[in-house]
Amino acid sequence: MKLKDDRKVELIYQAALKLVARKGLAGITMGDISREAGIATGTLYVYFTGKDELINALFACSRANSVQVAFRGYDPSQPFKPGFRTVWMNILRYKLQHFEEVVFVEQCFHSPYITTETREKARELAAPFFDLIERGQQEQLVKQADTGLLLTFIMGALNELVKQTHYSNETLSKRKIDLTFDLCWDALKA
Hints:
Blueprint: H1 6-23, H2 30-37, H3 41-47, H4 51-70, H5 80-97, H6 99-109, H7 116-125, H8 127-138, H9 147-168, H10 174-188
Helix pairs in contact: 1-2, 1-6, 2-3, 4-5, 4-6, 4-7, 5-9, 8-9
């Protein structure tokens, strides 16, 4: 049995992300991915049994990466709003730097490719975000609304800002970032 090489997995993931951003999730094949990655299609099948397995693995990896980055520098002992801003800014930076991943994850949420097991794993990975919002609610700083709805609002606003910035080829100014955060905070605060 051939040993799997983590660098090849990363090449495969990067190829899939590029292709999904260009052609959409449904529009790519294993052959497309292997060509983009610069590996033989047979080699691709050593790593993944098919497109469904590859998409689920990449989705889980993408979600894990984004959660890990989101909470860098977050200190739960600091006041809520500055801590929330730290997480919010980390998410924004990550999404700006990993735009193809943003497109991929968004398409996966609306895709039949993602299994129930993978969706459950994604929900488990989102637990720190739920905990953060619930902390704000406990401190009576955030609206007493469904936590999932509040997170949907936050992520939706961030995703749209990132897409607008990417497709307009404009640099996101500090002023626009601050204004967007203030709008988000005003919508969430109790």
